[in-house]
Structure to design on (533 residues):
């Protein structure tokens, strides 16, 4: 496991040696990590194992090997898993709904499944989370009549209901337009106050804007763990501008100005430019993973 | 985003998890939303088709013979089983995959909600068969119950083995093929689909009782969520990308 930068002194979530295979495919390969309060971004190419890691930490699927704790609870036993689930909010990659339920009824249903049996207290909580995600006005509308962005917010409300201490969000901004994405960023930033949020995303801007820590995964392994600034710093002195794509660059593309931005090992006399989080991320991956 | 209205996550639970009283409250709260979320359409379609097949016994002008009524009722049970194969379809499956309420309780509630409907359906199917043509009802009821629970076990296995939130169609196809092929391909020494009046009738219905018990066990085994992966994870398909 790669471990750079400061790690949380009091981790809310701690995992060691997680392994999981689907047939001959090793989806998780000795993954260890520690998460503290705040939003941690999980970056990686397709097939990196991000969703599998999130599903394991959310107790949706058990790992083949390894152990982890969430807020002090060990999900390796039925009792421990129950305790973890009581402390958990999970927004899956492809959230599903009962389309004929209203937004209120669906979140209320999830609240019951989170063992909130007191009807009036539960309804107060459902109204609170629907208000928090900006769906108060449409709470009586059937889910099948809501837009994709609104449905995603219903799923976030379902994850937030019950005030979980650990929130797992799997690519929550996929398919949202820029305005909706901004709205979601606000929601996630607010959700990260006082709780642990693990956010899987392909959007490096999401990580740059939201996360106090970042983990990069590829090939089922953790390649980097640290702060976004530390990930950006990995690319210091390794990003340069040129009039043509440099053949030795790991990645290179023409920017809006017409110049090429190259990432890799610069030639002598290269015109270095300020690195971004994305540059650091690209340098963390192998060339084949960048191409993928 | 604070405002706790539920037991705090670190609040100690009773040793055996939720107490009986709390489970009762949960079940009461869940009845309505679970009933609303049930796949009523395929259940109704399977049930209606089954009743039509049972009513087919009335089309015989010279009265239906018990052996023919038995075939009708077996076919009706298969049709109803096709509907039951959809019972665990849940479009919200991924969204509710990690809630504290156990899958066994949720699935059990679905079965419990449909059970009275199934009993009423079977009563209606029997009444549609002319009284003089009815086969021994106790034994046939056992066959129908075993068929229904087999369909439920297939649905539970589909949920356990696949990530698909609504595997009902595929499950129903498997149930249909199995239901049609089993009487045709089953070796003669396996007494299960015997004709009315043959010596092996009682023996066959002891076998049906075993099938019913086995199906219940498979349903329970597939519905309980494992804490650890059995046999290195052969039992689960990979998640969709």
């Amino acid at each position: 496991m790669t471990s750079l930068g400061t790690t949380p002194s009091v981790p809310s979530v701690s995992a060691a040696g997680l392994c999981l295979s689907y047939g001959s495919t090793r989806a998780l390969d000795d993954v260890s990590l520690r998460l503290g309060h705040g939003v941690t971004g999980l970056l990686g190419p397709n097939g990196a194992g991000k969703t599998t890691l999130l599903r394991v930490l959310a107790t949706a699927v058990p790992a083949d090997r390894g152990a982890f704790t969430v807020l002090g609870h060990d999900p390796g036993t039925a009792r421990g898993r129950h305790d973890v689930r009581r402390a958990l909010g999970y927004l899956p990659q492809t959230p599903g709904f009962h389309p004929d339920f209203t937004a209120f009824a669906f979140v209320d249903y999830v609240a019951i499944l989170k063992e909130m049996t007191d009807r009036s207290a539960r309804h107060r909580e459902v109204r609170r989370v629907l208000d928090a995600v900006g769906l108060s006005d449409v709470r009586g509308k059937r889910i099948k009549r809501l837009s994709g962005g609104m449905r995603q917010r219903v799923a976030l409300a379902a994850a937030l209901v019950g005030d979980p201490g650990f929130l797992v969000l799997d690519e929550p901004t996929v398919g949202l337009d820029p305005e909706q994405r901004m709205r979601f960023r606000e929601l996630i930033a607010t959700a990260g106050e006082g709780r642990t949020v693990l956010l899987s995303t392909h959007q490096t801007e999401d990580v740059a804007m939201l996360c106090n820590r970042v983990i990069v995964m590829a090939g089922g392994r953790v390649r980097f763990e640290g702060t976004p600034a530390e990930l950006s710093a990995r690319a210091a002195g390794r990003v340069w501008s040129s009039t043509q794509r440099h053949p030795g660059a790991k990645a290179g593309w023409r920017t809006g100005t017409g110049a090429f931005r190259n990432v890799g090992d610069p030639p002598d006399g290269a015109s270095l430019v300020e690195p971004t989080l994305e540059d650091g991320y690209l340098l963390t991956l192998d060339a084949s993973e960048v191409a993928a | 985003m604070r405002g706790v209205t539920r037991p705090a996550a670190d609040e100690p639970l009773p040793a055996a998890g939720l107490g009986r009283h709390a489970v009762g409250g949960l079940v009461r709260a869940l009845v309505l939303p679970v009933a609303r979320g049930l796949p009523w359409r395929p259940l109704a379609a399977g049930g209606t088709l089954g009743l039509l097949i049972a009513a087919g016994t009335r089309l015989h002008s010279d009265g239906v013979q018990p052996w023919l009524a038995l075939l009708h009722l077996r076919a009706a049970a298969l049709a109803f089983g096709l509907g039951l194969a959809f019972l665990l379809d849940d479009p919200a499956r991924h969204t509710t995959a990690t809630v504290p309420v156990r899958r066994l309780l949720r699935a059990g509630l679905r079965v419990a909600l449909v059970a009275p409907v199934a009993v009423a359906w079977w009563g209606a199917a029997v009444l549609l068969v002319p009284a003089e043509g009815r086969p021994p009802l106790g034994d046939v009821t056992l066959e129908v119950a075993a068929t229904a629970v087999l369909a439920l076990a297939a649905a539970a296995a589909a949920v356990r083995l696949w990530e698909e939130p609504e595997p009902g169609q595929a499950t129903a196809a498997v149930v249909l093929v199995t239901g049609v092929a089993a009487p045709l391909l089953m070796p003669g020494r396996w007494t299960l689909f015997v004709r009315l009046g043959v010596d092996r009738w009682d023996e066959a219905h002891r076998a049906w009782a075993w099938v019913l018990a086995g199906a219940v066990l498979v349903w329970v085994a597939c519905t309980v969520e494992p804490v650890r992966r059995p046999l290195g994870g052969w039992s689960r398909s990979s998640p969709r990308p």
